[in-house]
Specification:
heterodimer; A: alpha/beta; globular; B: alpha/beta
Chain lengths: 267, 234
């Protein structure tokens, strides 16, 4: 019986051709994600999530759902995992296409324009989330929607909104943060790529990525400095902003140091 | 309309931005040297047959000038957020005095839609970009109403990492050489104007133009803290 369950979980984990998150299914079975379990655990800690018992939680940009399931485990009353971009992609084909471009030294075209990759009617990228939800017996709800176009009145507001790894993919960051503020009842937890301009820490600036300059990923557009991120959040309708995590290295004036940061933004 | 009636008409507006010749030697008392601007932009002497869109038309000088140069259709849009006369500008007055056929619509650049407004061979996008909360979206909206080969004339504020002003002339340079960065101005931090949002540096502006459908942009001038471009829709 025990071995049967373990085998069933292992088969579930292996039935998904691409995992981004390493998710612990129990019984010693963990999905083979691009992000290691240890890495995700550290990322989860860096978010400094508030107590979630009895709260409603939106994970905008959920991918395989590691953080949605974590919120559920911490007692959130209702968890909604929203995504559409990575869910619409055949991630194996996407990696192949990307490696091909790297080998040829060309800039990848937007993935929405690559027919072998972009399959929103089939949602091949959502198999990880659906499988993990089944394996965990989770009640997390999923919404297939573009956060930039979904009807926000219909989506409603949430006590806590997680916006992790999304902001720098947005063509218009202020527009995205304004929408984020509209669905946030209490606080938003925003994790993003950021830039440090040594000697220019007092400036609110965003670095622009016309092609694939950031991580060779053509879907990256803007990374804010700490000042810009705070200012953008305030301009978007958040009353108070606090940086809870940052790991900038050091650099000389004239360099742009890229790093990751987490801010809490309260309505 | 006689000279006195024209003078009475221009007195209806507290402040004019553009100097618009209304005939009989009457010119609206604007502060902007619009003729010099038109010369800097090298606007074609004849716009015969062209369809022109003037984004952020303000008092309308550039629209009326394009009409005078033979444009087949001129659409002027403005969201009336001008700091000079909130909720009003001199367009309607000048339009009436000139007997102009330029169309005016109170609308935002973000609402431009080819199905609603049509397409344009020439777009004037002067001193507007840095007032947009979403500049890349604004450029894309404009690109959508332009057929391939159409021309956008762009003038905008731009950011430099270091800039000094000496007797009205700017001396500036970029510390972050080649980096595409855009400065964010929260609530009134650029020239005290809360409608100013973003200042791209030159590489960033050029990158945004390429990313929004303008593969070839020719820089015409750099004057003070402003850049002038002629951009071809790809």
């Amino acid at each position: 019986m025990f071995l049967g369950k373990k085998k069933a979980l292992r088969l579930l984990a292996e039935s998904v051709p691409f995992w981004f998150h390493s998710i612990d299914f129990g019984r010693g079975v963990t999905t083979d994600g691009r992000k290691s379990a240890a890495n995700l655990e550290a990322e989860l800690a860096s978010l400094r999530l508030p107590p979630l018992a009895g709260k409603t939680f939106l994970d905008a940009g959920a991918w395989d759902g590691y953080f949605s399931f974590a919120a559920e485990r911490r007692g959130a009353r209702r968890v909604v995992a929203l995504d559409h971009y990575v869910w619409s992609m055949d991630l194996v084909a996407q990696v192949e296409y990307w490696q091909q471009c790297r080998a040829q030294g060309t800039v990848p075209q937007p993935y929405e324009t690559i027919r072998s990759v972009w399959r929103p009617d089939e949602l091949p990228g959502k198999r990880g989330f659906d499988t993990a939800r089944e394996a965990l017996g989770s009640r997390v709800e999923s919404r297939v929607a573009d956060f930039m176009t979904i009807d926000l009145d219909e989506l409603g507001t949430f006590d806590v909104v997680l916006y992790k790894g999304v902001l720098y993919h947005m063509e218009d960051p202020l527009a995205a943060l304004r929408r984020l503020a509209r669905v946030t009842g209490g606080m938003a937890v925003i994790e993003t790529a950021a830039v440090l301009l040594p000697g220019y820490e007092h400036c609110a600036v965003c670095e622009f990525y016309e092609a694939d300059e950031l991580n060779f990923d053509p879907s990256n557009w803007w990374a804010p400095s700490a000042r810009a991120l705070h200012g953008l959040c305030r301009a978007a309708g958040f009353a108070r902003v606090e940086t809870v995590f940052e790991n900038p290295g050091t650099g000389s004036p004239g360099e742009v140091v890229r790093y990751r940061t987490v801010v809490h933004a309260w309505k | 309309m006689d000279r006195d009636a024209k003078l009475r008409a221009i007195a209806e507006l507290p402040q004019w931005r553009h100097r618009i010749p209304l005939g009989d030697g009457v010119v609206t008392p604007g502060r902007e040297d619009v003729e010099a601007e038109v010369a800097r932009l090298a606007l074609p002497a004849s716009l015969a047959g062209s369809r022109v869109l003037d984004v952020g038309c303000s008092d309308g000088y550039y629209s009326f000038e394009c009409e005078r140069r033979g444009a087949r259709r001129v659409l002027a849009i403005d969201d009336m957020s001008s700091m000079m006369n909130p909720g009003a500008n001199g367009f309607a007055i000048a339009h009436r005095v000139l007997g102009s056929a330029v169309e005016l619509r109170e609308m935002s650049v973000f609402d431009l839609d080819p199905a609603a407004v049509g397409e344009f061979d020439v777009v004037l996008f002067l001193n507007v970009l840095y007032h947009l909360p979403h500049p890349l979206l604004g450029l894309r909206k404009i690109a959508r109403v332009m057929p391939a080969g159409a021309t956008m004339y762009l003038k905008t504020y731009f950011h430099q990492d270091v800039r000094w002003w000496l007797r009205g002339k700017a001396l500036g340079f970029d510390l972050f050489r080649g980096r595409q960065v855009m400065r964010f101005f929260e609530a009134g931090r650029l020239m005290g104007d809360p409608t100013n949002w973003w200042g791209p540096n030159r590489p960033c502006l050029e990158g945004m133009l390429r990313a929004s459908g303008f593969p070839a942009s020719e820089r015409l001038h750099t004057i003070g803290d402003r850049l002038y471009y002629r951009c071809r829709r790809g």
